[in-house]
Amino acid sequence: MKKWSIDEGNCSISYTLSVAGGRWKWLILYKLFKNRVMRYGEIKKELPSITHKMLSQVLKELHSDDLIERIDYAQVPPKVEYQLNERGKSLIPILELMAEWGKENCPRFHM
């Protein structure tokens, strides 16, 4: 899947989409917001249709774009936790607006 280009559309929304665009990033950010700290398996359980390869890739991208923290524990078996960092938390108002919009407009919620 092609990642958004920062130059696409030549506007600030292009930058936001280049960092947090895609099918899974907003969902993972929202799950981390709701759960505070999650391990890989917990995220996978919350998003059963995401493949392991895609989940690993998206987590790496979110970490490299400085939206989440990856906490490695030096133990056997290995333990890794993910959580939003301050930059990631700055997206919370957008996530909450998206959730509210979905509640108001999704036909499934209006049956």
From TrEMBL:
Swiss-Prot/TrEMBL keywords: DNA-binding, Transcription, Transcription regulation
Domain HTH hxlR-type: residue ranges: 11-110
Coiled-coil portions: none
Membrane spanning stretches: none
Protein name in the entry: Transcriptional regulator, HxlR family
Highest taxon in the source lineage: Bacteria
Organism per entry: Sporolactobacillus nakayamae
Keyword Transcription: yes
